[in-house]
Write a structure and sequence with these properties.
Blueprint (H helix, E strand, L loop, with lengths): L2 E4 L3 H12 L4 E4 L3 H8 L10 H10 L3 E4 L2 H6 L3 E4 L7 H11 L5 E4 L7 H11 L5 E4 L9 H6 L4 E4 L3 H10 L1 H5 L4 E4 L1 H32 L3 H9 L20 H14 L5 H24 L7 E5 L14 H11 L3 E5 L4 H7 L4 E2 L3 H5 L4 E4 L11 H7 L4 E4 L6 H6 L3 E3 L5
Helix pairs in contact: 1-3, 5-6, 13-14
Length: about 425
């Protein structure tokens, strides 16, 4: 299976060299003959650790070739990586390559493109009547260790609805797949957004540690030791990257209040902490907006809420989104009935007027909509045919993205999650 990489800049040079190092025959091609010639001679114009050695090794072995014959390189390749360093003209270029490619060719867009680009490319290709598959695959390469990042990635992210393309690219990345590197398959828009969100998240982490470093200087703490201790916390990873979650619990507000007070007392503004707390507090309002969009004029309506604890496997309700949501709804004249496996007593004592139920079915009975407020695993196994009969209207607002949207919609539910199209 021949592979081609369009682009002889930073991204294209790294991708073509590293793919060839997997043992694949790779052609790096470009219309910029001067730049391509320099790359083929090892004159990169940038320094990247270990890259020159990888280039030399694969050119000597005959696995890595360079060409300005765009049509020929395109026509002989089963997989083509589009790896320009900018998104300028990427859409037009992808369409042009598709017109020269054989049917069933896979074009992988690895250039850093704005969200929506690959969907537009795919639409134009379909309108042109071409049997070409487009895959969005953002690259997460860091300057100075790009070769290492390519060979030891945290994940391989593929934006496509083609199972054939996924199989082909798993074959391309076979050394990584065999090593256990996770392959995440999603749609174009999500794959494109992950790249931008990842950059923003890293920027946020860096900004936060810099703010804390300023505070550390004032209170005689060591920011290096602090950063090491933070980085080893398992909560700072996928476990706490769940849309719909908030940072809550019995000590959360107290600890954030204490940190904010310490910073203020030392003349340090923790703007990221303030913003994070504001986003936390605004989540119940966003959920009310979702409910209002589905249930007209919520005053006087019945609302069922599944879960009152701030997270599963505890009865703590401090900072619970469900509790704040219930308060918000009740102030707007909504009659709230709620169920929680272990936190019913706590919810009852915290909220006057809430009707705490003995089962999830009792919470659903007669309600105009049902809200999943806590991600208790047992809620996945409920009898949703029964719940549909008990509800006045088959509406579910899943604030934890716990349930299966496709299954519920096929049953006739109006289903809304958080952060999901």
């Amino acid at each position: 299976m021949h592979t081609a990489v369009y682009g002889s800049g930073y991204l294209g040079t790294i991708i073509s060299a590293c793919l060839a190092d997997f043992g694949l025959p790779v052609t790096c091609f470009d219309e910029d003959s001067a730049r391509l010639k320099e790359v083929a001679q090892g004159k990169l114009g940038f320094y990247e650790k270990n890259l020159e050695e990888v280039l030399r090794r694969n050119m000597r072995a005959g696995r890595l070739m360079y060409s300005t014959e765009v049509a020929a390189a395109t026509a002989k390749s089963s997989v083509i990586f589009l790896a320009e360093d900018t998104h300028v003209q990427v859409e037009d270029l992808a369409l042009r390559l598709a017109q020269m490619a054989r049917p069933r060719t896979i074009i992988v867009v690895s250039s850093p493109v704005p969200v929506g680009t690959c969907a537009r490319i795919e639409k134009r290709i379909k309108e042109a009547g071409l049997a070409i598959t487009i895959v969005s695959q953002p690259m997460f390469l860091t300057n100075g260790c790009a070769v290492e990042d390519f060979n030891w990635p945290d994940r391989i992210l593929l934006g496509t609805n083609s199972s054939e393309a996924v199989m082909a690219l798993k074959q391309t990345y076979r050394p990584l797949v065999m090593r256990g590197v996770p392959v995440i398959v999603t749609n174009h828009e999500t794959a494109e957004l992950v790249r931008e969100a990842s950059t923003a998240f890293v920027a946020t982490k860096i900004a936060f540690i810099n703010e804390i470093a300023s505070l550390s200087e004032r209170v005689k703490a060591d920011a290096m030791d602090l950063a090491l201790a933070l980085g080893l916390d398992k909560k700072i990873g996928p476990r706490c990257l769940q849309p719909g979650s908030v940072f809550a619990g019995p000590f959360a507000e107290t600890e954030m209040d204490s940190l904010a007070s310490l910073a203020n007392g030392n003349g340090i503004s923790l703007r990221i902490l303030s913003a994070a707390r504001e986003v936390n507090r605004s989540l119940p309002d966003r959920i009310v907006d979702k409910i209002t969009a589905l249930v007209d004029n919520i005053k006087g309506k019945e609302m069922g809420i599944l879960g009152l604890a701030f997270k599963p496997n505890t009865n703590y309700i401090a900072g619970s989104t469900s509790l704040l949501l219930a308060k918000n709804l009740m102030t707007q004249g909504v009659h709230v009935r709620a169920y929680d496996p272990v936190a019913v007593a706590e919810g009852n004592s915290e909220l006057d007027g809430i009707r705490c139920c003995v089962s999830p079915y009792a919470a659903a009975e007669g309600s105009d909509a049902l809200v999943v407020g806590t991600g208790w695993p047992e809620f996945r196994a409920l009898d949703f045919e029964k719940i549909k009969r008990l509800l006045r209207r088959p509406i579910i607002i899943d604030t934890k993205n716990l349930l299966d949207p496709g299954r519920l919609r096929s049953m006739g539910y109006q289903y809304v999650g958080v952060g999901r199209a």
